[in-house]
Amino acid sequence: MLNPFELQCRLTAAAMPSGYESPCGEVIAEIARPFCDEQWYTPTGSLVCRKKGSGKKLMFAAHMDVIGLMVTYISDDGYLSFTNVGGHQPAALIHTTVRFQDGTRGIIRLRDQNDWAEKPVSSVTLRDLYIDIAACSREEAENMVRVGDLALFDTKPRQTGDGCILTPYADDLTACCVLLMAMEQLGESQNDLYFVFTVQEEVGLKGAMTATACIEPDMGIAVDGCYSGDDLAADMEMPVRLGCGPTIKIKDQSVICSPFVRAFMRTAAREAGIAWQDEILTAGGTDTAAIMHTSKGAPAGCMSLPMRNIHSPCELVSIHDMEQGARLIAACAMQTF
Ligand SMILES: [Zn+2]
Q: Potential cystine with 331: which of 239, 268, 293, 320 (Cβ 3.0-4.6 Å)?
């Protein structure tokens, strides 16, 4: 049986930012192969794992891209300016260690540090930050890094607390793990099932749009991370708690979930004895919107995994929520509509 923590480690080791997801796709494809009938990639790189059925098309989507940093300029001193790939909280990046694909490591630092004694750290922007890779000149830096190279958080998944994982990229690699765990549990289903690992969600839900156009599903369910109300740093008033089960989303900034799909998910949860949480996310969007509104559209819903410290080098997720989330996705996959 797939182990949630080991899965998280395997996917994190292959993680790449939006637009460069193929290493992660290969790892996911290999793990998913025994659980599906066919696999293919959309023209823009989303991985589709199909388990054939004679009934309607049900599409699940979790995004396999992660947020990253791209080098834009190398100074005479050998310091790197960078831009964001996906959404970052600049203040949270100060003193974060990063890793480039070739193994070069660096630390994110604040320009003109002394000037910040009087200013609020919350006003830091990406332009106030740079990456120090311990080079002493542009030439030395260019031997290690080029403009356009991508940096990732240099943190590894670790287990902590009572069954939690502290990890970069829980958003959304944990959801990819959950889809794989759900696929492993599938029995025979009438539904024609499509498990899609989408690209470029963090830069505008792009992979889910093209995947939806390719598949033309009758219904869709996205799986993603959401804030949790017990995250004091996030200052979100919401009833969702870490470790209290997956959520069934009502709305986020990108979508109002289909009441039909929400009812479908609730019925599946009730019959399988799975506790869920109601989620309204007042910031952020998900692949749900792309499924619901691409080409002719399809009714869509979303299951989220509660996370603390989301979009940071150390996100916190619960293994219990992963396991219950996988059960809920499997129950939805087996239920006809
Ligand atoms: Zn996400």
A: 268
